[in-house]
Amino acid sequence: MAEEIKKQEEVLEMNNPQEEEGEPYSCLEEYFVDCCRYNDLEEAKDCIQQGCDITWFDNRLNNAIHMACANGHVQALMLIKEELDKWENQEEKKQKFINHKNCDQNTALHWAAINGQKEVIVYMLEALKADPNICNSLKKTPFDEAVVFNQKECAEILAKVTKEDMSIYEGLEDYANNEEVKKEETMSDS
Fold first, then answer.
1. How far is Cα 112 from Cα 56, in angstroms, rounded to an integer?
2. What angle, 0 to 180 degrees and rounded to 10, lies between the N-to-C axes of helices 167-189 and 152-162?
3. Looking at the domain covering 2-189, what would its CATH class be?
4. Fewest CB within a 10 Å sphere: which of 74, 102, 106, 149?
5. Backbone angle region of 117, left / alpha / beta, with phi > 0 → left and psi within -120 to 50 → alpha
6. pTM of structure
7. What is the DSSP letter of 23?
8. Alpha-carbon distance 177 to 121, whole Å?
9. Max Cα–Cα distance, the chain, nearest Å
10. Are 147 and 155 in contact (CB under 8 A)?
11. pLDDT in tens, 39-92
12. Where are the ANK repeats (predicted)?
């Protein structure tokens, strides 16, 4: 029985050599998305020079802008904008790409808000003209997500362009503080 298991493991290793070497990319576009995720600008530029489709998205519908936003890489966004600026008379196509929704209906701006990427939010709003009013599958805007994930500075930036009421955030902050006081009182009573 032990020999049979060992043989099965050997067959699996032979059929999956990428496990040791890392999984290869299925296409140049997938590599480009990863370059934007890790802010590898030289490799991202090389992908573009090789004719990569910068609008490509993965199996969860995330594109290069999602990855750059989630990880706070303004420079990767600047590189993408350079390419978008070459798309003359295609504003609708640009905005569709910039505001693209993933499988959870999150835009890249949602990801920036969730992850507290203030500089990215400012760049997305000012340079790329991202739409801050798009709702995800939970019916939340990037502002709402910033509030939920306690990203107050991001919420403040988004509130300025969406005219959202920051008192929502302050109410949650007061509630959280009251809960902490209750915990402390309960602990000191014990």
1. 19
2. 150
3. mainly alpha
4. 149
5. beta
6. 0.77
7. P
8. 27
9. 69
10. yes
11. 999 999 999 999 999 999 999 999 999 999 999 999 999 999 999 999 999 999
12. 104-137
Q: Residue ranges per domain, the chain?
A: 2-189
Which among 159, 162, 158, 81 is positioned nearest to 121, based on CA atoms? 158
Q: Which two tokens stand for residue 105?
A: 């209906």
Which residues have CB under 8 Å from 60's CB, separation 6+? 102, 103
Which tokens sit at 123?
């760049």
Structure tokens at 44: 């991202």
Measured CA to CA, the distance from residue 131 to residue 160 in angstroms comes to 13
Q: Show the tokens assigned to 37.
A: 């995720």
- The token duo for 145 is 């997500």
- Cα distance between residue 181 and residue 163, in whole Å: 32
The pair of three-digit structure tokens given for residue 17, joined into one six-digit string: 């050599």
